[in-house]
Amino acid sequence: MYDFNFAPVFASFDALLTGAWFTVQMSCAAMVLGLIVSIAGAAAKTSGVRVLIALTNVYIEIIRNTPFLVQIYFIFFGLPALGVRFDPNEAALLALVVNFGAYGIEIVRAGIESINKGQIEAALAIGMSRLQVLRYVILKPALRTIYPALTSQFIYLMLGSSVVSVISATDLTAAGNDLNSVTFASFEIYLVIMAMYLVMSLLFSALFVLIQRQVFSYPVSR
Amino acid sequence: MIRDYGLNEFFFIATAIQWTLALSLIAFGGGILGGLIIALMRVADAKPFRWFALGFIRFFQGTPLLMQLFVAYFGMAIIGLPTNPWIAAAVALTLHASAFLGEIWRGCIEAVPAGQREASTALSFSYWVRMRYVILPQAARIAVAPTTGFLVQLIKATSLASIIGFTELTRAGQIISNATFKPFIVISTVAVFYFLLCWPLSLLASRMEQRFSRATTR
Lengths: 222, 218
Hints:
The structure holds two protein chains of two kinds.
Chain A (H helix, E strand, L loop, with lengths): L6 H5 L1 H33 L4 H15 L3 H11 L9 H26 L3 H9 L4 H31 L11 H12 L2 H30 L7
Helix pairs in contact in A: 2-3, 2-5, 2-8, 3-5, 4-5, 5-7, 6-7, 7-9, 8-9
Chain B lengths: L6 H9 L1 H26 L4 H16 L2 H14 L6 H27 L2 H9 L4 H31 L11 H12 L2 H34 L2
Helix pairs in contact in B: 1-8, 2-3, 2-5, 3-5, 4-5, 5-7, 6-7, 7-9, 8-9
């Protein structure tokens, strides 16, 4: 019978928490930067300029049809051959942003296309200012439409980010790898880390639902 | 001695595609079976089944695939089996695929108009008869496009098996990259192979999706 030994895992729990905090920070940073890429890409895709549309499509198809792991290897091991060098955490963030962007573009585009032109004209006709139109008629409904897709994409991003440990970025999984090389309690370590990821994704899901209720619920009465 | 990146090295990577494909097919085949069970449990009348299926899906969708692979790999030793990346990868990816396909297919089953379910209940069909002859055949049509889309995800996901030492396309690339010190060209080759595997399936999935949405919008 195997003796489970969780003691070394919990003795170094601080290191795992530090890693978890880094994973959250890196995921949030990647989400924000990835959204900027997504908005730029969606703007390019709806610009009507053929070259821009073609380039954006090439970017989307390449990223979507190759594994994230290969993308990280390419950025961290492949690009230095061309003289572009990153430290592991920079490469990890860049890979996450580039990957998120390819999925985000389609999400943002769906948001843009969900806006009814007639509503913008109607809002201007009843005397709303351009800023009010942008805020209440364009941004809020568009964000409401894409919010669920965006938040589940964030969870995928956070879980997928465990792969960046392969280039020894300092995330939660890498903290586990370090601990493993000292204690050899592999199963226990990765079981605990798996539970930590589960808690993180459940917490973020709950947080996203709360935000949705606060920000995007339809006004019942004014 | 540092090897050169020549035809031999190229073919070493190319032949590793078969292991990526084999692992994908095992996980996809197992996932179809497991996913069907999970989807049927998820829409079952008995609550414990629904709860189990929900928990199963939440667990596999809420934890990284890499951790699932690690726990499967290191867990084998704990239940007294010799550690084997083949079996660990196949088991982890099959369970992973079961959860995702289960959730995709639950959506497809629920997309079948409620009248169909009510009518078959009114005809006093049992759960199995209702599913087998009324709901599933209609859900299957809806499911083809998203299932193809998931197959692309799964092929890409098999690359993570390289981290627990399973020699497939990505690992073969790593081996050659380490031997030749030509990471740029080697990793690009690997990426092109994945692209050639996944892109046709992605195109097929989006074609089917478009055709289906055209057929169902009036």
